Amino acid sequence: MPAVIDHGTTRDGLIQLRRRWSPAGDARGAVLLLHGIGEHTGRYEHVGDHLAAAGFEVVGIDHRGYGQSGGRRAYLDSWSQFLDDVEDQLAEVRTLDLPTVMLGHSMGGLIAASYCVDGRPLPDLLVLSGPALDVETDGKLKVLTKVGPMIRKVSPGFEIRDDWDPTVFASDITVGEKFMNDPLRTDFATISLGLELFGAIDVTKQRLGSLSVPTMCVHGAEDKLVPAWASESLVGLGAHRIVYEGLGHEVFNEPVGLDVVDDVIAWIEPHL
């Protein structure tokens, strides 16, 4: 069944769109879903529906500045604004009095991981998909991190655009083609968001050893956006990590995506 849509308000007054997928009977757990950069929760209809069919109450939020939530597009003053939004939504999900899973993809995976090592109220379980826990440092990134702070002082909303290739999202090129034509896609990042994201990666890497939530990670071996090695550090922390040969960045959107969701469900079940 398609999600039911409603709206909440962030603590600083922005309208935040929420999608909710509910099981036919009593729920046995809850999932808070956090999407990646440039996208929105509407791309997770099949994931939410599949989790709901397995007995989970699923809530997904469009991050501030993305999808149909309020806020300047692809903009942050501080990474803590993302974490505040997650904390408030987690508190609301917790009112269901159910075991709660936080599930984040890509930038959403970074948000989830950074949240869980930030001293805030924790979910019971953490699931990360292609989490942006590290980044390849190329010449472009070195220049950005060097001159970016100066640009931000003058123009914090300066837009960083890239020529996205539809083949980088999944092994099935139609996934990328559909996303490129998605009217709710945000096809740029601001300098402010970019610097906050890179800063969050550094801080999260430093704090990751304090991660205390049981964690699962799913990652495509052929991920061209967040290389699979970026999540290797989770293994040393006791996380259950599956690397899928032949799959790209968006493992849930691959032709076998629901099989990956089933792997996630199978991992969650013994922890309920």
Helices, strands, pairings?
Layout: E1 4-9, E2 15-21, E3 29-34, H1 45-53, E4 56-61, H2 80-94, E5 100-105, H3 107-116, E6 125-129, H4 139-154, E7 159-161, H5 173-180, E8 188-190, H6 191-207, E9 215-220, E10 240-244, H7 257-268
Parallel strand pairs: 3-4, 3-5, 5-6, 6-9, 9-10
Antiparallel strand pairs: 1-2, 2-4, 7-8
Helix pairs in contact: 1-7, 2-3, 3-6, 4-6
What do you see in this structure?
The chain has 272 residues and is α/β, with parallel strands linked by helices. It has a single domain (4-271), classed as Rossmann fold, CATH 3.40.50. The chain has helices at 45-53, 80-94, 107-116, 139-154, 173-180, 191-207, 257-268; strands at 4-9, 15-21, 29-34, 56-61, 100-105, 125-129, 159-161, 188-190, 215-220, 240-244. It is globular, with a radius of gyration of 17 Å. The chain starts with a strand and ends with a helix. The model has no long low-confidence stretch (mean pLDDT 96).
Sum this structure up briefly.
The protein contains seven helices and ten strands. It has helices spanning 45-53, 80-94, 107-116, 139-154, 173-180, 191-207, 257-268, and strands spanning 4-9, 15-21, 29-34, 56-61, 100-105, 125-129, 159-161, 188-190, 215-220, 240-244.
